[in-house]
Amino acid sequence: MSSPELVLQVLRAELRAASITYKALAERIGMSESSVKRMFGQKDMALSRLAQICTASGIAMEDVLRRAADVQPHADTLTAVQEKALIAKPRLLLVAICCLGHWTLEQVIETYAISEPECIGFLAELDRLGVIELKPLNRYSLRVSNAFHWLADGPVQQYVREHVVGDYFGGRFDGPGETLMCLPARLSLPSARELLQKIQQLAAELARLHQSDRRLPADERDGFTLLLGFRSWEFAAFTEMRRHG
User: Rounded to whole angstroms, how far apart are CA atoms 30 and 32?
Assistant: First the structure.
């Protein structure tokens, strides 16, 4: 990622931390919301425009530039050691997953039976583990990328298989916006790789919608989980019925 892109990334993060939406920013700088969105969709921004936005938002431009200079590329995964530390404490894993969903401390303690001191302690532990960077007033930024995923067959995936998959697939999948599909096919390896790319694009689209909908009030959003698997596989009971010879 180039330096101008990093500056925009940091600026977006600072605006989110200050709870300033694109609509609110547009009103402050005399632009339409759509123009502001287009401006942030570009990969560069004039210093004069950056200064105008920082002044209108009460953000120090020097801090934005310094943070952009200090930013290191975020990892797409945690290490096995980090994942083991999370699953050793299910409540810590819960808070970590909330952080990956960009929940505030207030949202966590309003939703779950976790006290404010406990939650602050978990945030501090996630900071030590390198999952988040804890900031003043118990705010944070993620130290993982938007393409984050758990390690293949790592500690968290093993935990999910043991404790989560049965609970997840125990649902009816007949609610608004829900579906369950099991679609067998015989594919060549190139076709399988093509489909894998489309699955990765779907994951990126989910991340985009998640990011976009964060601007909506909490009561207009619900927790959805996309659980995908794609591999060469046949149900063992069916394999036993194959003809041999």
Answer: 7
What contacts 228, CB < 8 A, 6 or more positions away?
Answer: 199, 202, 203
Backbone angles phi, psi at 51, to 5 degrees: -65, -40
What is the C-alpha separation between 90 and 156, in angstroms, rounded? 11
Measured between alpha carbons, how far is 75 from 143 in angstroms, rounded to an integer? 7
The pair of structure tokens assigned to 5 is: 């892109």
pLDDT at residue number 2: 47
Render pLDDT for 125-184 as a digit per residue (tens, 0 to 9): 999 999 998 999 999 988 888 778 899 999 999 999 999 999 999 999 999 999 999 999
The answer to whether the pTM exceeds 0.70 is no
3-state SS, residue 132: strand
Q: Which two tokens stand for residue 235?
A: 């149900």
Taking residues 24-37, report their average pLDDT.
92
Residues 18 and 59 sit within 8 Å (Cβ to Cβ):
yes
Which tokens go with 87? 């699953």
Which amino acid is present at 105? Answer: L
What the block records as the tokens of 232 is 């060469």
15: left (phi > 0), else alpha (psi -120 to 50), else beta?
Answer: alpha
Question: Which of 146, 125, 156, 243 has its CA nearest to residue 203?
Answer: 146
Tell me the β-bridge partners of 30.
Answer: none
Average pLDDT, the chain: 89
pLDDT tens digits for range 101-123: 888 999 999 999 999 999 999 99
